[in-house]
Sequence to fold (116 residues):
Amino acid sequence: MLRNIRDLLEKRTMLILSVLNNRRPLSFMIAIAVFSTFFVGQQKVEAQANQRMMKMRHFSYKAGEAYEVKNWDEAIRYFGLLTKLVPFSSSIQYNLACCHALNGQPEQAIDALGKS
Fold:
């Protein structure tokens, strides 16, 4: 992904240089506006992805910790939060189903297994 961003930045730089060589100030301003919008937007997307990844790591760690000490309610809570972040992960759904089963909640366990 970094290489794609670098390639895009090089293309944008070439566009700006070509505009400067042609001495078209309005085109230059448009090129700068497009470049700035893309760059700021890309930074926001990367920040959101990093924040999501940090949440996933935290919830996963907490779920594993709760599972180790057999605190099923807390494990269910964190696996549930993980399923909201990664709704199509069969392994998270399976782990959630196991916690429900171990906590004596067969209906919820079957529901989670059905989603896995």
Summary: Residues 25-68 form the longest helix (44 residues).
